[in-house]
Design a protein that fits this description.
364 residues; 16-stranded antiparallel β-barrel; 17 strands
């Protein structure tokens, strides 16, 4: 990695460590005491300082990768308002200076209201700018958005309405989610509602889960035409949770990113080699576009701080070119309460990090 990239990575890492939001937590705890148990304020966040370099003409990048702060206010676990911001939009791309083209519309990643148990029915309604119900949403690699299928696997930063039935469909599924949304996102304006999706989740056993998703997207703001996506995913765990495996296949048409492709698949394994340390192996394929094999290791330095290193070998089918992409990340997670975001991992949400403070090999 180039010297200037390493320097910027170190500067962002120092900024990450120095900006621990302890004072914010203290203020929120005081508000909690004043408001009582019925009204709960919460702060969740993740700050990732990441560097990336490619053998393709030596291209490199540095910045805050998928970093966010999410503020929420809930009343009796029935109504919750959430605002999530993209911290990486504050800084210039590949730099540590402030972004001269800062836009509030891009800065606000999510802004929605969630209402649960409507009329005593196990039903949830989410309204606003939020992740849409689609895909399996496994994020195991340190820089998971570098997966070439990432934009096929999710629909986010768009306005819409999602209805979630937590007791499933006639007992056939554990959860049913239906969304209606705009397909042009990234702003704070409600556009044309020209997309619908459905996601079905079913626990096959205690350790295996199946998800089936389908989306119809009008893409009226594009010239590529009506887009369809169908996703089938399976995820499971073994060896008391030390080994996790997953696979997701997506059949699609008229996708703007891959107009000549119809099918894609990704899958992988994550194995815990030691306490707080995981090795991840991931393979991805997009028809007529590319093959990719990724290998990563991530380890918890403390309860809240995680370091990760990954390498991806990518073979472009039509261009007959190869590329190797190296990535390094340092992620700091914080929050007042256990994570309760709308878009989660399967198996009941993202598993909390083990408390490494009792491990003599790890120091706070």
């Amino acid at each position: 990695m180039k010297t200037n990239v390493w320097l910027k990575f170190c500067l962002l890492t120092a900024l990450l460590i120095q900006t621990t939001p302890g004072t914010i937590f203290a203020g929120a705890e005081e508000d909690k005491k004043l408001l009582g148990d019925d009204f709960v304020l919460d702060i969740q966040g993740e700050v990732t300082s990441a560097g990336r370099v490619s053998t393709n003409m030596g291209r490199s990048s540095i910045g805050l990768h998928n970093s966010y702060i999410s503020l929420s206010a809930a009343w009796k676990d029935k109504i919750r308002a959430v605002v999530t911001t993209k911290l990486d939009h504050i800084f210039r791309e590949n730099g540590v200076g402030l972004n001269d083209n800062f836009s509030l519309q891009e800065f606000i990643k999510e802004a929605y209201i969630e209402i649960r148990e409507v009329g005593g029915v196990p039903l949830a309604i989410i309204v606003g700018k939020h992740p849409i119900a689609f895909g399996q949403n496994v994020q195991a690699m340190p820089l998971f958005s570098n997966n070439p299928l990432a934009k096929l696997q999710e629909v986010k930063e768009v306005y819409g309405v999602t209805v979630e039935l937590t007791e499933g469909l006639f007992g056939l599924f554990d959860k049913v989610e239906i969304s209606a949304f705009e397909t042009k996102g990234g702003d704070l304006e409600l556009g044309r509602i020209d997309g619908v999706s459905v996601r079905l989740s079913k626990s096959l056993t205690e350790h295996w889960m199946l998800t089936i998703s389908h989306a119809e997207m009008g893409n009226s703001h594009l010239s590529t035409g009506h887009e369809r996506r169908t996703s089938v995913g399976l995820i499971g765990e073994a060896l008391n949770g030390d080994l996790v495996g997953w696979v997701e296949g997506i059949y699609f048409s008229n996708n703007p990113q891959y107009p000549n492709s119809k099918f894609a698949i990704t899958g992988g394994l994550m194995y815990r080699v030691a306490r707080g340390t995981d090795v991840v192996l991931e393979y991805s394929y997009i028809q007529k576009a590319l093959h990719e094999l990724g290998l990563a290791i991530k380890t918890n330095l403390t309860k809240n701080l995680q370091a990760g290193v990954e390498v991806r070998y990518r073979n472009y089918v039509e261009r007959s070119e190869q590329e190797v992409i190296f990535g390094i990340s340092l992620t700091y997670r914080f929050g007042l309460r256990e994570s309760n975001t709308y878009e989660e991992y399967l198996f009941g949400g993202q598993k909390p990090q083990e408390d490494e403070s009792t491990d003599p090999a790890v120091e706070e």
